[in-house]
Amino acid sequence: MGVDQPNPEEVVDRRVSCDGERATVRYLGTVPPTAGLWYGVEWDNLERGKHDGSHEGVQYFTCRNPKGGSFVRPAKVSFGVDFLTVVRQEYTIDTEEVLSQEISISSRKLEWGKVKERSYENLPSVLLTRSEVNGAGADGEIRETTPSIFFCTEKTD
Predict the structure, then answer these.
(1) pLDDT, tens only, 94-153
(2) For the chain, domain boundaries
(3) What is the CA radius of gyration of the chain?
(4) Separation in Å, CA 36 to CA 4, 20, 30, 33, 68
(5) At the topology level of CATH, where does 8-78 sit?
(6) Which residues, other chains included, contact 119 with Cβ-Cβ below 8 Å and sequence gap of 6+?
(7) Contact status, residue 11 vs residue 25, Cβ threshold 8 Å
(8) Where is pLDDT greater, at 114 or 62?
């Protein structure tokens, strides 16, 4: 494998997102006679696929549904990010940006003087809408950074 080319053993069976649709990697490699690298994916959405993992009579991977698979280029595949990266992206308040805004509610201006940076320690729950979480991250990091979370869900519409 080249330096920039992923190892198939590290990506097969991993969860990915392609153009906002969820899938599982079933194959990584070439698909002759086409050039370049392809990911063979099995889609969660059964209507998204095109084939059963074969191309021109060669079976590269198998799917539960005969039309559940596709070959996609690496540029279209997102492996997501770890849990705490998503929490930080979704729940961090940019205090400088907030303090520079003037917001009026019922003709009264809100005062931002008491706005503080969000403390992850006190978050009781998180909603990670279409966030592409790929794993927990480093051992113990979630418990250390967000000890109060007792409910976490990923909204999928």
Answers:
(1) 656 656 666 656 655 555 444 444 567 777 878 777 777 877 788 888 888 888 877 665
(2) 8-78, 81-153
(3) 21
(4) 13, 23, 6, 10, 22
(5) SH3 type barrels. (2.30.30)
(6) none
(7) yes
(8) 62
